[in-house]
């Protein structure tokens, strides 16, 4: 199957759109051209052609009026248009596709259509974005590459994007599996303030939204047991109950002396995390923290 897109500097939206189409159709013959006849002859067109119609294989957003926007007001670029068409089939569910759209696709589209998602707090410093990572693979202004070398750079960018998409899709499936396991852990908790998991898995959304009494989550690690405080709400850095101030920033013997728990290992300076060498140790730390919180 042949796909046409534009030559020259590539952007994350056309790169990721091609990567999605590879996941759908397998390896593609990608033609990077401005020639209208060559574009029309291709089976699919991405980011060129001035038309959006999945039925004819057209995924462009440069036409007058664009190609629509999401309910949240973020406009579609080519990545979003292709993902909207194929995301649910690739991700396995509408919910998983929507999560990947929010986490990855929206940011790429917003960057391409000129919508600002992040305002810098320190001068002009902004975090490196996915679009920036992809864009960095373009040749610099003083690099003289042949058309074949430019196409090779593009292929490298698509391979990077494809790998990221594959991990996002796998992560969405893993998140779905974790949701059921966390729900079961909430149901079997002897003390609703402490949720014990069989391993460290995505738990914040489920615990925060469905376990209003939960204060801590505990789980086994490769080097012992860990516990994290439950945030007040999803995405918040404020906890329902942080570990005691006197423990924070301590580790080893220093933490043992402060807590009385013989295998206490570490307490984060921000008070959201603590660890111990055994299940008994982490349970004791959490119990002491809950007791200290009850006494406030």
Would you summarize the structure shown here?
The strands form 2 sheets. A 5-stranded mixed sheet has the order 2-1-3-5-4. Strands 6-7-8-10-9 form a 5-stranded mixed sheet. The model has no long low-confidence stretch (mean pLDDT 95). The protein is of the alpha/beta class and 296 residues long.
Strand order of the largest sheet: 2-1-3-5-4
Structural class: alpha/beta
Radius of gyration: 25 Å
Question: What percentage of the residues does DSSP assign to strands (E)?
Answer: 5-15%
Assembly state (oligomeric): single chain
- Percent of residues in helices comes to 40-55%
Rounded mean pLDDT is: 95
Number of helices: 9
Tally the beta strands.
Answer: 10
Shape: elongated
Distance from first to last alpha carbon: 67 Å
N-to-C series of helices and strands: EHEHEEEHHHHEHEEHEEH
Largest sheet: 5 strands, mixed
Describe what this molecule looks like in 3D:
The structure is a single chain. It contains nine helices and ten strands. The chain is of the alpha/beta class. Helix 1 runs parallel beside helix 3 (78-91), helix 1 crosses helix 6 and helix 4 (94-113) packs across helix 6.
Outline the fold blueprint.
Elements: E1 2-5, H1 12-25, E2 29-32, H2 36-41, E3 44-46, E4 52-53, E5 58-59, H3 78-91, H4 94-113, H5 130-135, H6 147-188, E6 194-196, H7 204-210, E7 216-221, E8 224-229, H8 252-259, E9 264-267, E10 273-276, H9 279-294
Parallel strand pairs: 1-2, 1-3, 3-5, 6-7
Antiparallel strand pairs: 4-5, 7-8, 8-10, 9-10
């Amino acid at each position: 199957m042949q796909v046409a897109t534009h030559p020259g500097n590539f952007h994350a939206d056309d790169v990721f759109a091609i990567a999605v189409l590879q996941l759908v159709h397998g390896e593609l013959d990608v033609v990077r051209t401005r020639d209208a006849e060559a574009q029309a002859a291709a089976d699919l067109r991405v980011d060129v052609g001035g038309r959006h119609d999945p039925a004819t294989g057209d995924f462009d957003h440069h036409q007058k009026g664009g190609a629509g926007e999401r309910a949240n007001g973020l406009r579609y670029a080519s990545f979003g248009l292709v993902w909207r068409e194929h995301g649910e089939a690739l991700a396995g569910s509408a919910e998983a596709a929507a999560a990947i759209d929010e986490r990855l696709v929206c940011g790429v589209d917003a960057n391409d259509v000129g919508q600002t998602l992040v305002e810098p707090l320190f001068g002009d410093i902004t975090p490196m974005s996915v679009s920036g990572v992809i864009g960095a693979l373009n040749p610099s202004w003083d690099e003289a590459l042949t058309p074949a070398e430019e196409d090779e750079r593009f292929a490298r960018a698509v391979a990077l994007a494809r790998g990221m998409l594959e991990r996002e899709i796998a992560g969405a499936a893993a998140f779905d599996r974790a949701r059921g396991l966390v729900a079961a852990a909430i149901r079997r908790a002897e003390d609703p303030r402490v949720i014990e998991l069989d391993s460290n898995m995505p738990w914040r959304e489920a615990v925060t939204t469905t376990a209003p009494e939960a204060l801590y989550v505990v789980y086994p690690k490769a080097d012992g047991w860990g516990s994290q405080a439950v945030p007040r709400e999803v995405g918040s850095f404020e906890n329902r109950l942080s570990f005691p101030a006197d423990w924070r920033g301590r580790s080893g013997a220093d933490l043992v002396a402060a807590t009385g728990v013989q295998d206490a290992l570490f307490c984060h300076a921000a008070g959201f995390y603590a660890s111990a060498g055994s299940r008994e140790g982490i349970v004791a730390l959490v119990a002491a923290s809950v007791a200290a919180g009850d006494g406030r």
